[in-house]
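Recap quiz, item 2
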Amino acid sequence: EIEMTQSPATLSVSPGEGATLSCRASQSVSSNLAWYQQKPGQAPRLLIYGASTRATGIPARFSGSGSGTEFALTISSLQSEDFAVYFCQQYNNWPLTFGGGTKVEIK
Amino acid sequence: EVQLVESGGGLVLPGGSLRLSCAASGFTFSNSAMNWVRQAPGKGLEWVSTISASGGRTYYADSVKGRFVISRDNSKNTLHLQMNSLSAEDTAVYYCAKGLFGSGSANDYWGQGTLVAVSS
């Protein structure tokens, strides 16, 4: 099973600032990596797939990078609606696995 | 508009069974792999099971293998998850999610989830 490790667990950011979230895989997942955003009481929303492709309707301030075992999600200028928990997921191998999440909170 | 609506959750005794359903609309259901993903209270996401578009291939997490069965009815645009031998560790919100591409891909649409609580 591929283990996905996200860091940091919590990120405190002021509105308007940028943020970079990290996701590391225990073995290569090529570019088969997705990022999701989840707000309290809501279902996850797909942000990025293929490590760097924005999903339909996702603002350009969200960008993904990386391949192999090291990945990043960058939010260029945080808006109020961006404070949430972010999960990465690998879909290169069964079982599909998620990272533990990074909570982005208001500083 | 894509819609996924789960139903069938509730409170069940340890060792009991429950059948979840997910009604899909707004896309060609028979062309899409489908997934169940769960989230225990206050915890992260855990993939549970995937079924291919035709229903011919199924995949399970080790934690549910042998106890859960995923199925689909393409004539009714409905996904199911039969859950048997439930334990407290199965307590979670269960989400139905549409595969972006084939089996084993990102999930581009999610339902709002249905809560399964296993307790005596």
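Chain A touches chain B at residues 1, 32, 34, 36, 38, 42-46, 49-50, 55-56, 87, 89, 91, 94-101 (CB under 8 Å).
The CA atoms of residues 23 and 71 of chain A lie 5 Å apart.
End of item.
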